[in-house]
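Revision sheet: structure tokens.
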Amino acid sequence: MWKVKPPLVFPLEGRYRPILESLVPPDPMSQFHLRRGSPEEEFPDLRRNSTWMGQILTPAMYRRQFDRCTHSGVIFDDVIRLGLEEPGDWSGPVSVGCIAGDAQSYILFCDFFDRVIEAYHGHKITSQTPESDFNYDNLKVAGPTTDRSYAVSCEVSVVRGVEDFCFPTHCSRGERRQLLTLARRALQALQEEQQPARLLLLEELNQEQQRELNLNPPSSSQLRTGVARDWPDSRAVWVSKDGNLVVRVNMEDHLRLVSTRDDANIAEAFKCICINLQKLEKSYSELRHPFTWKQQLGWVTSSPANVGTGLRIIVHLKLQHLPKHRRLQDILERLRLRMDRTESPALFSVSNVATFGPSEVELTQLVVDGVKLFIAMETRLEGDRDIDELIPTQK
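Predicted:
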């Protein structure tokens, strides 16, 4: 298991020190007059916390972040609040347990965020800019991406934050309405080719229409962390003419592009995302509000689980034998994938774990290859044959 060992020195914090000193006034917390105790008195109880936040945060680290505050008012307790309210379960996947209130949080609290990101994604942060590859032709696909007798559907999505705006957990009502106005203008770049697509306000949709668009009510986590504040004010969804592309505005993040296909054609869904994301990126840049980017991290949004590419590929597979195999967890860890149950007992969703490190094409290739391997394993198990020789080495 990946073990977190606090380093003796803090090179990442040292690298950002000139930035911190220039951006943050001395003791910024003094202007809020909060009734707080000392860092030792305020340090949270993490004994039963299974998140990466709970495993990484130490009293010394907490003390260093304690008096820091971003320009929009995000303090460190806002960052770790998610992990304290949802401490996780030792038997399930380890969550990040933290959330950023704005883009500056990743710089100001880099001592903490960098280690959480490295632990969750299994990739070291360096001074090099993360690789990005939206050339869908680089995807190596020989024939159909999936076997239709096993693959039911697929979904490729990507999240983006917009520069100069707080993330949803810390976003004001006015900011959210400005983001909706920006989205109306930026989506015109897609509107011209996707007629008669249009932007639908969530408050104008009834429950049946929301179900058809796979729009779920806010989760308890979103309500507690403030993501769903003032719901459904200024939340909207843009749907393409053929229904294969949906753009969600002001929901879990500033923007989420989702391409869903019932034929489980991952390559086509990925192509749809690449083409339309780049059009939107150009539109937002022309509006002088580009997507939020950090040199060492790539694209950043509210959750550290989505930094880097913000890309998520999900494939729904019909499996009977593989989910029961004794070495399933080992296989998933080697492939850097996760498998979750759905409401249907024989249907499982397979998706990538990390979004930071590999490029967009590499992440998609990882899922394509993994799904093909799972189908090959399931076929062997159906014939009572062994799959040990198909188990890959560590990715």
